[in-house]
Design a protein that fits this description.
single chain; Lipocalin; 2 helices
């Protein structure tokens, strides 16, 4: 039977090993200031929806380019999970004013919102493509991961730019081109309105994260 002293020593060793494994790892959490925009087409006019909530977290290793001007080309240690509540997205006019609540309802229905509350992205790989020319300029990455929409997942690759903000914050900006049918969504054709929606979608986002306090 192990004595209390041995148990304490084992716990201390386990804690030390955990701290060593976490050494050099920096964690970030989603912060206000994010923005998501989805752009599409129809036979009547182009359309867009916007939202200002992007949740999630980011964990990076010691080779992550905290100094954007010294970013070395190649893969960096990074893990991220991103979540966008479906009902945070609303249809808007080109000037940003609210557009149509009926369109919002159609969007929620097509995204299977009752059973799939969020659009999700899980980062699988992050590769530096270009260092920043100045501290205020972005680092250019290529990001690979899995995008889940309406409960269906699909691998995607997209360019990603990271800008360093004050107060230990980072802003990731990207654009991804996808199709509704990639996720099992048939482009809406509202009955009686003569509107046919295009299959192509453009996802444009700014994701702001802040360093997690110890």
């Amino acid at each position: 039977m192990k004595t209390p002293g041995i148990l304490v020593a084992a716990l201390l060793l386990a804690a030390a090993a955990s701290a060593q494994a976490a050494e050099g790892v920096t964690q970030y959490q989603a912060k206000p200031g994010s923005k998501m925009r989805m752009e599409g087409t129809s036979n009547i006019h182009d359309w867009q929806v916007e939202g200002n909530i992007i949740g999630g977290s980011l964990e990076v290793g010691p080779n992550f380019p905290s100094d954007p001007t010294k970013a070395a080309p190649g893969k960096v240690d990074a893990k991220a999970t991103v979540s966008i509540p479906v009902r945070s997205m609303k249809s808007v006019e080109k000037d940003g004013k609210p557009y149509n609540a009926k369109m919002d309802d159609i969007m929620y229905e097509k995204l299977l919102e009752p059973t799939n509350k969020a659009i999700k992205f899980v980062l699988g790989e992050l590769v530096v493509k270009e260092a920043a020319k100045a501290a205020s300029d972005p680092v250019v990455f290529e990001a690979k991961g899995e995008l889940t929409v309406a409960g269906k997942s699909k691998p995607i690759t997209m360019p990603l730019k990271m800008t360093v903000l004050p107060d230990d914050k980072l802003k990731f900006s990207g654009t991804a081109a996808v199709k509704m049918t990639d996720f099992g969504i048939q482009p809406p054709e509202p009955l009686g309105l003569g509107i046919k929606t295009g299959d192509d979608l453009k996802l444009i986002f700014d994701w702001v994260v802040g360093k997690k306090k110890a």
